[in-house]
Amino acid sequence: MRDPIFRAAEMGDPYACLGVAYYYHEGKEVEPDMGLAVEWYRRAASGGCPRAHWELAKLYSEGIL
């Protein structure tokens, strides 16, 4: 993983997990991968990141999940 945010996410930082989820969701720095995006959004949400909960709710409301 190239970016320091990936290392922080692997160490469990919920806001870094949100950042990694965004990278996979939008295809920034990595190939887009909605499955990995959702996995990282869930990790961020489990860590207490409110924005991750919002992003997951949005994906559910759009019928993606």
Identify the notable features of this structure and list them briefly:
single chain; about 60 residues; mainly alpha; 4 helices; about 70% helix; flat
The proportion of residues in beta strands is under 5%
Stretches where pLDDT is under 50 for at least 5 consecutive residues are none
Helical content stands at: 55-70%
Report the total helices. Answer: 4
Count of distinct structural domains = 1
Sequence of secondary-structure elements: HHHH
- Main beta sheet: none
Structural class: mainly alpha
End-to-end span in angstroms? 26 Å
Overall pLDDT score:
94
Large-scale geometry: flat
Calculate Rg over CA atoms: 11 Å
Count of β-strands: 0
What does this structure look like?
By secondary structure, the chain is an all-alpha fold. The chain has one domain (4-49). Helix content is 69%, strand content 0%. It contains 4 helices and no strands. The protein has helices at 4-10, 14-26, 34-46, 50-61.
Give a quick summary of the entry:
By secondary structure, this protein is mostly helical. The protein has helices spanning 4-10, 14-26, 34-46, 50-61.
Itemize the secondary structure elements and their pairings.
Elements: H1 4-10, H2 14-26, H3 34-46, H4 50-61
Helix pairs in contact: 1-2, 2-3, 3-4
